[in-house]
């Protein structure tokens, strides 16, 4: 036993002497001072007041990740290091709006949930092949015009955004922000003299962001339908529309998509109405895609599919910077009432009447 302790001591002693003789250096990490900044939002130019906003501060060093904060719609305080920043913000009181490419100021994109078409139909011809509409509304519906290889996206909810291209945070300055052109804010700094008083006043840094609407409204009105009150369900898609929006530039993303919407029957006015948002009226992919409004109407005596090329209407709205457009379509169609004396027999309910394939605008 004694020999065992001696052997252990001879092993430990050299190691202990080696450690004692080492020249140790303290481990440390870079310590950045986090400075408080008050962030406020100006909703003068938008029609709603969000309940919550997300703010992203992008350092001038492009390789650095943005500082991201979730605030109430009334604003609040954040803490960031001194430096130069580009700032983006958008409301997060939504359910289907998502951010993409958030590591880059210029590429930061807002989009919605996309869906991969899953259809077991093996037919591949133009009219009967797998499509977004068939995946969304059932395998028997006709393929919507203009679908191509577009992904189906949820229509976005109302969204507003803010941007600031040059916000400066200094450790010894009061930051004063003024509203710039196009809804941007520009930061101006005023040096605060230190003086001889060892007790310095609190340095107040503030950023006021001007909100602007990030979506456009499509109001659809379809009249001329005799017996429209007998329609049981109305659904539709708009193809060739942008799948997202670049927040910094305020322009639609290049990727084209299609959005779905729900229509309602106005039995008093004998109209079909729909109202939904899109990111932009302008077609994606540099205007190479046509935009088609596809409408599906179900009834107890038959189903009807219609399509209209609305590219010119939406392009005109985009060119004039209108954000609320009404598309009024005239449709010559008669929906028959169910024969109460023979209500148990409804021929053709599962088939689609495509005779009225063009809608007059």
What features would you describe in this structure?
The structure is a single chain. The protein is mostly beta strands and 361 residues long. It has 3 helices and 24 strands. The chain has helices at 2-21, 132-137, 311-319; strands at 35-42, 52-59, 67-72, 76-80, 83-91, 97-100, 109-112, 114-115, 151-153, 160-169, 173-179, 185-191, 206-210, 212-213, 216-226, 231-242, 244-246, 251-252, 256-266, 271-278, 292-299, 302-309, 324-334, 352-353. Strands 8, 9, 15, 16, 19, 20, 21, 22, 23 and 24 form a 10-stranded mixed beta sheet that branches. Residues 21-30, 118-130, 174-201 and 342-349 have low confidence and may be disordered.
Question: Could you list some keywords that capture this structure?
Answer:
mainly beta, 3 helices, 361 residues, 10-stranded mixed beta sheet, 10% helix, 7-stranded mixed beta sheet
Produce the secondary structure layout:
Blueprint: H1 2-21, E1 35-42, E2 52-59, E3 67-72, E4 76-80, E5 83-91, E6 97-100, E7 109-112, E8 114-115, H2 132-137, E9 151-153, E10 160-169, E11 173-179, E12 185-191, E13 206-210, E14 212-213, E15 216-226, E16 231-242, E17 244-246, E18 251-252, E19 256-266, E20 271-278, E21 292-299, E22 302-309, H3 311-319, E23 324-334, E24 352-353
Parallel strand pairs: 1-13, 9-19, 10-12, 15-23, 22-24
Antiparallel strand pairs: 1-4, 2-3, 2-5, 5-10, 6-7, 7-17, 8-9, 10-14, 11-12, 15-20, 16-19, 16-21, 17-18, 19-20, 21-22
Number of strands: 24
> β content, as a range?
35-45%
Question: Could you describe the largest sheet, including whether it forms a barrel?
Answer: 10 strands, mixed
Q: What structural class do you assign from the helix and strand content?
A: mainly beta
Shape: elongated
The total of helices stands at 3
> Roughly how much helix do the residues carry, as a percent range?
under 10%
The first-to-last residue Cα distance is 103 Å
Radius of gyration: 31 Å
Element pattern in H and E: HEEEEEEEEHEEEEEEEEEEEEEEHEE
Which whole number gives the mean pLDDT? 76
Q: Which stretches are low in confidence, meaning pLDDT under 50 for 5 or more residues running?
A: 21-30, 118-130, 174-201, 342-349
């Amino acid at each position: 036993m004694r020999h065992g302790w001696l052997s252990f001591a001879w092993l430990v002693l050299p190691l202990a002497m080696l450690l004692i003789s080492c020249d140790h250096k303290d481990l440390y990490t870079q310590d950045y001072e986090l400075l408080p900044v008050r962030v406020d939002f100006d909703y003068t130019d938008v029609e709603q007041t969000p309940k919550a906003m997300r703010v992203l501060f992008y350092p001038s060093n492009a390789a650095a990740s943005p500082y991201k904060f979730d605030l109430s719609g009334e604003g609040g305080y954040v803490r960031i290091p001194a430096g130069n920043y580009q700032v983006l913000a958008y409301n997060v009181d939504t359910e289907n709006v998502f951010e993409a490419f958030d590591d880059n100021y210029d590429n930061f994109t807002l989009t919605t949930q996309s869906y991969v078409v899953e259809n077991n139909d093996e037919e591949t011809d133009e009219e009967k092949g797998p499509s977004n509409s068939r995946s969304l509304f059932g395998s028997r519906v006709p393929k919507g015009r203009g679908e191509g290889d577009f992904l189906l996206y949820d229509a976005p909810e109302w969204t507003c955004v803010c941007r600031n291209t040059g916000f400066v945070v200094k450790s010894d300055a009061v930051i004063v922000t003024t509203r710039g052109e196009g809804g941007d804010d520009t930061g101006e700094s005023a040096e605060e003299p230190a003086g001889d008083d060892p007790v310095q006043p609190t340095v107040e840094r503030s950023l006021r962001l001007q909100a602007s609407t990030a979506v456009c409204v499509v109001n659809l009105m379809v009249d001329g339908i005799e017996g429209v009150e007998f329609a049981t369900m109305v659904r539709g898609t708009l193809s060739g529309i942008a799948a997202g929006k670049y927040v910094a530039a305020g322009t639609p993303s290049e990727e084209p998509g299609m959005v779905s919407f729900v229509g309602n029957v106005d039995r008093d006015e004998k109209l079909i109405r729909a109202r939904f948002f899109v990111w932009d009226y302008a077609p994606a992919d540099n205007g190479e895609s046509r935009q088609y409004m596809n409408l599906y109407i179900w009834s107890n005596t038959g189903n009807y599919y219609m399509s209209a090329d609305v590219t010119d209407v939406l392009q005109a709205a985009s060119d004039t910077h209108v954000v609320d457009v009404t598309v009024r379509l005239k449709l010559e169609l008669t929906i028959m009432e169910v024969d109460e004396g023979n209500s148990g027999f409804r021929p053709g309910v599962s088939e689609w009447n495509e005779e009225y394939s063009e809608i007059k605008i």
